[in-house]
């Protein structure tokens, strides 16, 4: 089980500990930030007005184990899922799926969004499988969008409409997730 709490400036050091290379940063956030990642860039993230960001906490230990965010356009009832990362010590334990499910719970159940989209680099096959298992549909490929150390990375755009979300019981609170705080 995990609990989500609002991301604050005090969580900046966690992200800096978890994102240690330019490639990690790009996989996490696309081209939003510049390398080297620093506290000022991450502190600004905590104050973005249309973004909800959370830190995942292991309630057994109180340790921060992940981060997820949702950029919301309430006028059009859409959102963009992103900036998902887990602590190195928590990887391989299904935490990514729980973070995605929790964010989708907020998006569809609380905010009543119609659509949630995301972008993921095509070579990040672990993330692609996770998003497909979570119910996202591949919508297209943006070819050669980011140049990294002389190689081009392509991005897969994925989306989910409100009626396509896999059913959860109870709605919005997948097993093992505490309700999101914001």
Show the helix and strand layout.
Layout: E1 3-6, H1 12-18, H2 22-29, H3 39-45, E2 51-57, E3 64-73, E4 78-86, H4 95-110, E5 115-121, H5 125-133, E6 137-148, E7 151-161
Parallel strand pairs: 4-5
Antiparallel strand pairs: 1-2, 2-3, 3-4, 5-7, 6-7
On the 0 to 100 scale, the average pLDDT is 92
**Class computed from helices, strands and strand pairing:** alpha+beta
What would you say the CATH architecture is? 3-Layer(aba) Sandwich
> SSE order in H/E notation?
EHHHEEEHEHEE
- The number of helical runs is 5
Number of strands: 7
CATH superfamily (homologous) name: Gcn5-related N-acetyltransferase (GNAT)
List keywords for this structure.
Aminopeptidase, 5 helices, GNAT_dom, GNAT family N-acetyltransferase, alpha+beta, 182 residues, Acyl_CoA_acyltransferase
Structure description:
This protein is globular. A seven-stranded mixed beta sheet has the order 1-2-3-4-5-7-6, with helices on both faces. The protein has a single domain, classed as Gcn5-related N-acetyltransferase (GNAT) (Aminopeptidase, 3-Layer(aba) Sandwich). The protein is an alpha+beta fold and 182 residues long. It is built from five helices and seven strands; from the N terminus they run βαααβββαβαββ.
